[in-house]
Amino acid sequence: MAKGSMAVLVALLVLALHVGLGLFAANWLWTDTDDPNQWIYFYGTGGCCIAPITASVGAIAVNNPRFKAIGVGMLAGLGLALAIAAVALLSGYVPSWVKG
Length: 100
Hints:
The protein is mainly α. 74% of the residues lie in helices and 0% in strands. The protein is built from four helices and no strands. It has helices at residues 3-29, 38-48, 51-62, 68-91. It is elongated, with a radius of gyration of 15 Å. The chain starts with a helix and ends in a 9-residue tail after the last helix.
């Protein structure tokens, strides 16, 4: 597998992991008695709680020539996941299944 495609694959996997963990945490923590705007807080908390671990492992991998593509993919996926969470938070996004 080419190094560029490995980085893209890892970035997509990291993005899916962070978004999936955020969705799991938000849906598990949010109850019908909560304010619907709290859902995005729970999403951000769940998806970003592993961000320091992902960043640390990605930084270590980038500095190793053998795993550089994996590290670049991890950091790119993490950056994209954090950007998506920030846009969702700033736009006040609330999914359709969360009713207030």
